[in-house]
Amino acid sequence: MNKIIPFLWFDDNAEAAADFYLTLFPNGRKLRELRCNEAGPLPVGALLVLDLELNGQEVTFLNGGPGHPLTDAFSFTVRCDTQAEIDAYWTQLTADGGSEIACGWLKDKFGLSWQIVPANIYSLLAHPAAMRAMMAMKKMDIATLEQAAAS
Above 90 in pLDDT, residue 26? Predict the structure, then answer.
């Protein structure tokens, strides 16, 4: 069990977000949840807090209401071994209202920011030409980065 767990504040769609992320990460699972058991800010039975595990990383989601939207200042990085893996995550995470940003960054339909990058991103970007190539990209292209790093 992780001792440090990211805690994400959603307005009222934490459960929908969790269900979506569990489709993206087949090794993911719900760990714990807490639902309202009496009348209060949310209806009885509504989800308050949910703990997930996504590829070994625990994450807590809260339906906290408006006032604290997700921000680009926090993102998850997914390190990918192949271009096909980058393409698949990119397509799924930008679908239905997600948006491409730059340099491997995107925002999904829930407003959560992600970085979809090659597993060897640090060694690639140690080469100035690869860094320049990445700066012109939205979705990472491994072959282009490798070619630039080799030049």
Answer: no
